Amino acid sequence: xxxxxxxxxxxxxxxxxxxxxxxxxxxxxxxxxxxxxxxxxxxxxxxxxxxxxxxxxxxxxxxxxxxxxxxxxxxxxxxxxxxxxxxxxxxxxxxxxxxxxxxxxxxxxxxxxxxxxxxxxxxxxxxxxxxxxxxxxxxxxxxxxxxxxxxxxxxxxxxxxxxxxxxxxxxxxxxxxxxxxxxxxxxxxxxxxxxxxxxxxxxxxxxxxxxxxxxxxxxxxxxxxxxxxxxxxxxxxxxxxxxxxxxxxxxxxxxxxxxxxxxxxxxxxxxxxxxxxxxxxxxxxxxxxxxxxxxxxxx
Amino acid sequence: xxxxxxxxxxxxxxxxxxxxxxxxxxxxxxxxxxxxxxxxxxxxxxxxxxxxxxxxxxxxxxxxxxxxxxxxxxxxxxxxxxxxxxxxxxxxxxxxxxxxxxxxxxxxxxxxxxxxxxxxxxxxxxxxxxxxxxxxxxxxxxxxxxxxxxxxxxxxxxxxxxxxxxxxxxxxxxxxxxxxxxxxxxxxxxxxxxxxxxxxxxxxxxxxxxxxxxxxxxxxxxxxxxxxxxxxxxxxxxxxxxxxxxxxxxxxxxxxxxxxxxxxxxxxxx
Lengths: 299, 270
Hints:
The complex is a heterodimer.
Chain A: E1 2-4, H1 10-19, E2 25-28, H2 31-34, H3 39-52, E3 62-67, H4 72-83, E4 86-96, E5 102-108, E6 113-119, E7 123-128, E8 144-147, E9 160-167, E10 180-184, H5 195-203, E11 207-210, H6 212-216, E12 237-241, H7 247-253, E13 258-263, E14 276-279, H8 282-298
Parallel strand pairs in A: 1-2, 1-3, 2-8, 3-7, 4-7, 10-11, 10-12, 12-13, 13-14
Antiparallel strand pairs in A: 4-5, 5-6
Chain B: E1 2-6, E2 9-11, E3 33-35, H1 37-55, E4 62-68, H2 73-83, E5 87-91, H3 101-114, E6 119-123, H4 134-142, E7 146-156, E8 161-167, E9 172-179, E10 182-186, H5 198-204, E11 209-211, H6 214-217, E12 231-237, E13 246-249, H7 253-266
Parallel strand pairs in B: 1-4, 1-6, 4-5, 5-11, 6-10, 7-10
Antiparallel strand pairs in B: 2-3, 7-8, 8-9
Helix pairs in contact in B: 2-5, 3-4
């Protein structure tokens, strides 16, 4: 078995590797040894390292784990093609039975269901969901770490050049430092109805957040977005209004101290992380909540 | 210039999902099927690129839409034609069905290669299985430069190059230059997909839609469809409801709000 990782998600990758037991090797891919990131180059460097194989049991399963980040999940499927491996993305649990059969758990249908999957090939490339496998001791059993260098014979010529990096949205919203956040989800219904969340935010002295569909629809600007592609937040109080709770959203807010969800769908995945849930139409409950909180303040 | 767009038909996630009797998937007898949301954005982006070329006085690129799936997928392809695509290719052969991202990617790569596309657009991730792998597999097999999670595209057809903005974590973007032929996996939010007009829907019935099979694509039977899938699903379950949280339901809005405030006072977060 083999774990590969570096940077964000390294802890999750190591924890997932431990869950599978076996013989763990950790490979670090960094720009210092490998050169600037390019998907083909990184896939090829890992392929060369893994097929090198020095003295391992050719019958035992070989699992290559990478963090499900926007960098490694970009090239991991290409590595799977090059290794003729199975590819399983964004796993949240991993087990191995006495017969050496590996199984993974992952969410499907936008986190509405979860699936247990079993690879049909000896070699598996899997990406590990950030935030899953939490709470492991980083100091436990230090694995041997290999720094991945540039393959000597590489002729990978990538027709892709990085021109620069830029912030995606404007400023003015301090979600990362907020004590309380009220987030508007798709369930608010439209740009005119976002006010129901904004008014509750004012009554709670909270910042206003937004889920991805709300931003994609243009109901609120991108700087309000909570989730893996927006802000990762951990306020004292997180109140989700009409947020269904995609994996990317849960990754961005599940570290909050108290999570409240108001949604009329009792099966919305957001309830799986909520400490308090109200199954109701947010347009009925939120205005009452706003009124009671305003009355409480002025009394 | 030819732009290919790969789309996937998926269950509408707003519809009620029931687990099939086998326990290995969802009951597909009574589902609404739609074009996966990111794929719809990819099609819209292709339409916008074609319109921009025309506005610059260039020849309008031809738009070819591809989809792999059973007979029901024809509806998704007709919708893409109604929205403005010129031709459709349906990978409908039984031997191509039941695969995973690797198997599907191999078949789609062969279909795209056969049509000699200069640029291929597809969604970053499907709304059903969501492995986000098929676009990378197509790019890998075709040897195309590739970017995932694309939030903006500018095409310079003269220089045969693209300027692309790609999403990174934590509110950052990366700006890239890619040379054609290339494959871009489009992120939701890049644009607002248009609705089909009545005229478009009528025209779509007459636009060419052809079927493609395994033999025509010259792909190995063991590498595509169910035979080529790298993993199998043993079981599908509902996630555990509520992680031990307090649920307030079946009461009036007034009572629900009062109960919640009482809980939040106890938690000292107000």
